[in-house]
Amino acid sequence: MNIFNTDPNRLTESERWRLLLAAGGVCEICGGEFELGRMRVLQFEGDFRDRQGGILIICEGCLRDLQRIHVPLHIQRQIVAERPFGVRQLFRKILGEGSTAISLKDPDLEEMYRIACDSWSLNGSG
User: Fold this and answer.
1) Tens digits of per-residue pLDDT, 32-42?
2) Could you tell me the residue ranges of all domains in the chain?
3) N or C: which end of the chain has fewer CB within 10 A?
């Protein structure tokens, strides 16, 4: 059974690129830095408290590894729980789960990038 849903129709292309940008090109599994074109947005199947809780941003190498093994739901949740707070907040805004959702009419990508970089450097990853 494949625990990942890689159907691109679940997220809009705009949402997918905004999530990649918010993650700052850092794989949430291995912690490596990659070009955005080499990163993937995965959606776990399952019951999550909010939409961002079922999403992982990973590199192509980790995608290949994860497709070969079964990752228990509690491990998925642990990985997401370790996501920096600022990135988690950006994800919620991108996905329309915050009080100030980012819409296609008003994408403030510069602000998102600044917050993601600040959060990333505070997390000790940069």
Assistant:
1) 999 988 999 98
2) 4-122
3) N
